[in-house]
Amino acid sequence: MTEKMAILIDGENISFDTLPEILDHSRRIGPSCVQRVYGNATRLPAWAQAAGFKLVHSGTGKNSADMCLTIEALELSYQHGFGSFVLVSSDSDFTHLALKLREQGKFVLGLGDHRAPEMFREACSMFRELGDNSASSCDGATAPVPKTLDLKIRAAVQSHSKNSSGIEITTLGQIMFKQHGFKISSLESKNWRGYLSQNPRKYELDPKGPHAKVRFLSTGV
Fold it and tell me: Considering only CA atoms, which of 91, 62, 63, 87 is closest in space to residue 73?
């Protein structure tokens, strides 16, 4: 069974015009079963018409949209077992939420415009800037299965690595099966070392051994 993913948008902070780009980045991770926009509904007529999205009216109070989004994100994580989150905002207030979700072993894709502060960007498993088309132009119209797989591998390594030492390759396999229902035997390489060694720009491997580790290279983003 594949893990569940949620797209949660700060509607008061993000323009409706970026929706196609938001969906494009999100689909590279996988299908989403929850798609919500948060904010004062009376001020978000465009978001109210977004097909497939539920507009959650948060009222008019200060930071009410941020609080509502945060509460529902944690609820989806704790009570409903969601494994991946797309947090769409350029607000530093979501830094702590991103860090908390990652502490729970969740994958967090952050999306925001040029205003997004560094602290929020770094808190996410991965961050993509809306309006920056460099990633799209390099990846092509559709992302192949390995692209999605690499994102999940990176999240697993980042969540379980201590002092940037990486995680054991055998542990990676266990995590990928437990969290995503994925078996490396479904790919042509058949085993994890075979797959990882085919991508030297993304992964650094220890020599063969029962406790050999893998590390995700920053150049492989």
Answer: 87
Q: Say how far apart CA 122 and CA 179 lie, in whole Å.
A: 23
CATH architecture of the domain covering 145-220: 2-Layer Sandwich (3.30)
Residue 143 has a CB neighbour count (10 Å cut-off) of 18
Burial class (CB in 10 A: 0-12, 13-18, 19+), 142: exposed
Domain positions in the chain are 5-139, 145-220
Over the stretch 134-181, which tens digit does the pLDDT of each residue have? 443 334 333 345 567 888 888 888 888 887 789 999 999 888 888 777
User: How would you label 162-174 residue by residue, b for 16+ Cβ within 10 Å and e otherwise?
Assistant: eeeebbbbebbbe
pTM: 0.61
Domain 5-139 superfamily per CATH: 5'-nuclease (3.40.50.1010)
